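Summary for the steering committee. The consortium agreed at its last meeting that each partner would contribute one worked example illustrating the joint modelling workflow. Our contribution is presented below. We chose a case with several input lines so that the handling of multiple components could be demonstrated. No manual editing was applied between input and output; the record is shown as generated.
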Amino acid sequence: MKQDDSTFVATAEIAPRPRPSEPAGWWVRTRALYFSSPATSATTILLSIVLIWLCVRFVDWGVVRAVFSTGSQGPDVCRQPEAGACWAVVAEKFRLILFGVYPYELHWRPALAIAVLGVGYLLSAMRKLWSRRLVGVWIVVLVVYGILMRGGILGLVHVPEDQWGGLPVTLILATLSLAAGFPIATVLALLRNSPRPSVGKAIAVAFIEIARSVPLVAVLFLASVMIPLFLPADVSLSKLFRVFVAFSLFSAAYLAEVIRGGLQTIPRGQYEAAEALGLGKMVTLLKIILPQAYVAVLPAIVNVFIAFFKATSIVVVVGIFDVMTAAQRAVADPMWQGFGTEIYLFVGVIYFVFCFAMSRYSATLGQR
Amino acid sequence: MKARSGKPVTVSRGASRSWNWWAVLRQVVAFAVLAGLVFLMFQVTSTNLQERGVRTGFDFLSRPAVTPVLTSPLEFELGVSTAARALAAGALNTLKLTAATIVLSTLAGLLVGLGSLAHNPLARRVCTVYVEAMRNVPVLLHIVFWYGLVLSLPPLSAVRDAEFILASNRGIFLFPTVQGFSVHALVSMTPEFAALFLGISLYTAAFIAEIVRSAVGSIPTGQWEACKALGLSRRTTLVRVVGPQAVRVGLPALASEYLGVFKNSSLALVIGYQDFMAVGDTMLTDTGHAIEIMALVMLFYGVIGLCMSAVMHWFERRQHVWSRT
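What follows is the complete predicted structure of the assembly.
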């Protein structure tokens, strides 16, 4: 018996086997990823050819044959038949695109105003700074922005609103109209979400549905053509302000639907628990329901922000001097006609930087 | 069924009955305030109009239009055709642009969306770059960019011998035959139409690609694994099993993208393609009937937009019935 048992038990330690050999070398790994089947191989080869062709064409146009500076010869250098991209036009026009028709020698003021807004955005993006103090920060930011742009005090030369332009206008329009749209959106969402029918609910539903089904262009026209007709003759509002009102109301309709989605994620138990604790309706709403609803749909809210940041470009149709209008003005310059592609690529990069930053940020919010 | 858990519910009947009168009173007051505001606005507007000497009424619609609509499926004769006909021509242009854009953006979006789900890392990378580059730039910039490109194409005389596609600064033509200064083609696009068509399509395609990707991604991996266990190919799995389920998930978002295409088509105004918005804008300058024309514009976009979202809701409900059977 004892002898039989021992046949199943190893008497000596068995050395561990070497691990199975990994598909060695970069070629084997590449083949597994890019050439695993005939279809995959075909895709890889086709895409590579197209990409290489595009890259070569772009580098040839945008770097090799490009004109980065015309020296003192003016735009004619770019019109040579062998010339590629004319980046000199961007060098010539970037101050017009960024700052519009703001007095040239005062351009440091809008530049500083953009920087101040940028600091505001960065501080608001940090989660650990989310408190009531942020409101104070934004009041400071906006006051500094106003002083820098408008001037008239602290020894700064006064610059009237109709000379503002470019990026500061795009940014302030997006910032202020979304800031004003947010509380309106919250009220609309709460009205629409209320269980009982009421006049307020009917107005909220009608407003949200109509605003979401008409194009922004039409709303901007309505604001610039119709608001003066609706108001008494002695009240006159600046064009920028009218567009700001239109933008706030329009963005409120979109934000309201997002916030309503957030309200619907709050379980009924939250309301009941608050009621059981004897909390009033307003306290329940402000301290319990809304904070949770906002956080639940934060990525979607940022997406609406991105959409409206891009949509500010549509103010072109009513003649507000934002980045897009400035770009169109730069393209229309008869001296530099025919270089729209370069200017639009530059403007595209400006919008891309802001929107891409926001969308990356929105993605990190979603991961939490 | 939509989750209704978020709505506060009045706890007991007795409690709600005791302050019911207050609620009714509040509603009456709210209605009175609303009616008062509307009345006030109407009053102010009509005084403003009287002061400016503007005549109101829709009779301008039956008078000949001042500015012609040049490219439209409707025949248009300057000095004879009415303003109403001009608006109808503009409306047809809007619908034509919307329909063409929806088709191209769906095809491109499907291609990019499926590409971003491919095994091939190169294809995935290319699709991601496309989506990020396109969607983070305003659609208006896409449109003016393409408009500039189309206008910088060679003149018609330089490319007249093209066989399949003739791309000139006078427009883009498929299967063209050139006779003198005019081109007859199976499909012809003016530079304005081409710029809007390409710009809005390529922009919207990025969003549709994301919808496709997230809809397919929302289907549990168990579905893929089960199909693999059954011996179905990846392609069959996608077309027969995962695809139909993903369509149901992605359809509402897709429909709202289509509504977005319809609304974005009004940007035609910026580059001067005569869609409904642009025709309305010109007519506003020509006749000065601001209120009537803005009302017509809001009505046109509002009614079609609301119809599109109504169809979308109806389809969603129908899908719901299917998914339960």
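The radius of gyration of chain A is 30 Å. The mean pLDDT of chain A is 85.
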